[in-house]
Amino acid sequence: MFGDVSTIIRELKKRGIVKCLTPEKLTGRIYFLTNYGRRLVWRVFATAIDAEEQNFDWNKYSRVLAGKTRKHFLLVMYRLRGFYPDGIGLAVLRKRLGNLYPLTLSQAFSTVRDLQKEGLTTISGHARKRSSKLYRLTSEGVQIVEYILQNTQKKS
Fold first, then answer.
1. Most buried by CB count within 10 Å: which residue of 13, 14, 92, 122?
2. DSSP assigned state of 55
3. Which sequence spans correspond to the domains of the chain?
């Protein structure tokens, strides 16, 4: 099945219908319609497709989607940001993910560190009781989560 998808995408690229937004990636590549491809979709299906976001880091987006843990962390942080304006502790994040997506403490630390390296989260301070770190989304992190949510809602 994967071979079929690869063959189809290769053929669409050759015909100028799609382009790769993350060509340097070996896995998790993201493809999007070219202007010609969008016009073709309009003619055949009478469906307008917006142009891809120009000021968007598609490599980071691809990395987030490739890792379920990273994606779930960002989604939970996004949903809780209004309740925790000073930042969210790792214990709260793990608890909120609990039943849906249980993580060990080591996995949670690793995920937060990874998201910080990508520039999607940052340390916003320390909790009063145990002085554990508090994390919040960066503006780029918010942008990626909103793009994920926007495109998930379109499919529903």
1. 92
2. S
3. 2-52, 62-151
